[in-house]
Amino acid sequence: MERTDYPTLGLVVYKTTLPNGLTILVVPRPGWRRARACFVANYGGADRRFVLDGKTCDTPAGVAHYLEHKMFDMPSGTMDEVFAGRGADADAYTSEAVTNYHARCTDRFGENLRDLLAFVSTPWFTPETVEKERGIIGQEIAESEDDPAFAAYMSCMGLLFGAGPLGDSIVGTAQSITAITPEILSVCHKAFYVPANMVLAAAGDIDPAEVERIAREVPPAESGPLPQRDYGLDLGLMPLETRSERTMDVSAPQFCAGVKLGPAAMGPEALKERLTAELAMRCLWGGHAPAYLDLYEKGLLNDAFHYEPTYAAGVGYVCLEGESPDPEAALAGLLGAVDRDMDPAFFARQKKAMLGGFIRMLDDFYDLTDALAEGHFAGFDALAAPVVLETLTVSDVTAWAREHFAPSRFALSVIRPKEA
Amino acid sequence: MRSVRREIMPGVFLTSLQTDKFKTGLLRACLLAPLDRETAAKNAILPSVLCRGTVRYPDMAALGARLDELGGAELSPTVRKLGEIQAVGLAADFVETGNDAALEDMAALLGEVLLAPNTRGGLLLPGYVESEREKLLEDIRARVNDRTEYARSRLLELMCPGEAYAIDALGDEETAADIGYVALTRHYRVLLASSPVEVFYCGAADPDRVAAAMVDALSTLPRGELDFDIGTDIRLNTVDEGARVFTEEMDVGQGKLAMGWRLGDAMEDPDMAALRVMNALLGGSAGSKLFAAVREKMSLCYYIYSSLDLMKGLLLIESGVDPADYDKALAEIGRQVQALKDGDFTNEELTAAKRTVSSDTLALLDDPERLEPFWLGQDLLGLDYGPEELAALAEDVTRGDIIKAAAGLACDGVYFLRSREEEDGED
Prior knowledge:
The complex is a heterodimer of chains A (420) and B (427). Chain A contains 14 helices and 17 strands. Chain A has helices at residues 63-70, 79-84, 109-121, 127-145, 148-161, 182-192, 208-217, 268-285, 290-297, 327-336, 344-361, 365-378, 385-391, 394-404; strands at 2-6, 11-17, 23-28, 35-41, 49-52, 55-58, 73-74, 77-78, 89-94, 99-105, 198-204, 228-229, 243-248, 254-263, 306-312, 315-323, 411-417. A 7-stranded mixed sheet of chain A has the order 1-2-3-11-4-10-9, with helices on both faces. A 5-stranded mixed sheet of chain A has the order 13-17-14-16-15, sandwiched between helices. By secondary structure, chain B is an alpha+beta fold. Chain B contains 15 helices and 13 strands. The N and C termini of chain B lie far apart (63 Å). In chain B, a hairpin with a 2-residue loop joins strand 6 and strand 7. Chain B folds into 2 domains: 3-217, Cytochrome Bc1 Complex, Chain A, domain 1 (2-Layer Sandwich); 244-423, 2-Layer Sandwich (Cytochrome Bc1 Complex, Chain A, domain 1). In chain B, the strands form 3 sheets. In chain B, strands 1-2-8-3-5-4 form a 6-stranded mixed sheet. In chain B, strands 9-13-10-12-11 form a 5-stranded mixed sheet, with helices on both faces. A two-stranded antiparallel sheet of chain B has the order 6-7. Chains A and B meet through helix 2, strand 9, helix 4, helix 9 and helix 11 of A and helix 2, strand 5, helix 4, helix 10 and strand 11 of B.
């Protein structure tokens, strides 16, 4: 494996790409009791339409997530049983962009890694097991629909993108999942779970050579073709609609404001773009930013406020979420900061603080391995962040923010309390 | 990783863990007070008011600038309920590499925020107090927005009416609404002078250096008559003979179930390792009996888990189910608890539960954020062993230990948050 040293971070990363196209990234962390491995498919809730063997497939909302649930089954038992028997645990999540399977353990890492790879590489879908899952996922959907923050987010995604790969919920709806069959799951597995469309990232007090050896033995020796995806997204930067409102049982208005960033860069440029966005938002809306503090003091925002950039389906977008007695006024206050000049001393401190946040992230296994996987799919080295961050200037960041954050480009969804 | 605990000032206890595994240092300080309806909201608001500004850093912008200079350090207010004790304080996370005085700088700032608030005429600033009072009220009301958390908190309120345990960590709306800056300043001085203080550090510095930094940072901490009379009343029996059932309605599709079980006689001379393994076996992991039966076999829910409060002697079971499946779910949960009492579980299930507890416990050693509550909990329970010893004890738990730990389990309250009747479409 190829070794890269990051002396300023005190880390070493081993990386290789196997003949079948699977990329492996390993970060040894001596002295750590627990090891974590994540096996990630570049396949998420947004990947609904694709071409396989010359045929275009349209799949229902929620299929990537449904498939995630069903990868926990093999004829010999479930992943939960196998891992629990060793005191290890395995879990998974599906985002717009990826399906991430991860396992953690304090011993028998090799066996656990082997099983993680075997379960995720083995399609086994029977009518009974697929049917059984419908009740479970139905409750997962019901839970998400009762969550006001999720409701605000989904409404906002609808405003930005309309129905489709990003406007529909990752988990689907009670209706959409009725169309999911063993055949559809098999097709999706065949299209997206090919080794060249996956990455394995691991961290812990582990031997990189052992990880490579197991990764060579378990997944298929040959990769299929990389899937061709068709998102059919409107790549315009304006939201399709700008405002939505509904009521739920909530204590105060909950809001989600969103803005499209346009096509997402790939390669090293993507890292620079993402860091620029993150630094810009930290300077404009972070916990120490003047606009945020002003709104906090006025009672228009509280510490529930946060923002989150997402890159999926070939595009980027940002959501600003929180609670406010007057979401319109809060959004106006946040966007008012975009046109004001940034204090260079404040900017320099935010850069320093962002670097500190990055270094603290390295102590979190989840964040570290997920960041490596995400960087791999976008074509950049996530651990190069400090070097790239150092090059960003106040004028870069200001220009980027003004280009992307014009008020007319924002959509706002609000969940209001029911009238008493 | 050796843990060293010592009293560095009267009633100020420092637990210090030295390790070079992390790039991050973690420092926590909290004041311990009895959980009481009259004072809960006042205690809960204090850390937030203190984080508004100090003598040297008079507002959030100045304090934020200092944290940014310290390499993006974080300093946040913390409010917790530990059994019937309320712990309020400050949590600091900071990068230790690249600054030889990172610990001293952080400790000094933590001490400044805790002990030297921005005041006028000796009183906390009215603007800060009023603003944080509104935010505290928003937080208390916002409990309803998280349906799962709301169900748990309502269960405890309704199930434990005569116990301090019913009180939420944030207090209630009535007492929060009454908070004013003059009385709060007085309360702040009393709390500082009378509370035992728990300080926790995990990072590269040795215990002597941490003690010196904290003694320096807390040098102006007033120490009056300390109230060590804090603790938790354990109720062994249920209030009525059977479980009390509480149902409330909300505009939701999924029903939220929360059940409270008294641990009973198992709390007379508690075997902590056996109780933890018993919980893992019942509902503490994806390999547990509840997960296997209620989710995997019956497909009734997405989540179901049990959890323990070893200070209070309670076991909670929580799940989200369709209101139409409420009876089915409840009956199956009852069956699984009974199976535990009857010893009706396989050796494989027992081994899995033991390994789960042992592995989770060892993994604490990688996670300072979880080590802090672990050690604080051990101290409050009067136990002095660490994660490695606890993991070894879990490995030694026997079938008989589990049956004994489960024997006294008695359901005292069932809370169900369900959709409004007229919205069910039932005729």
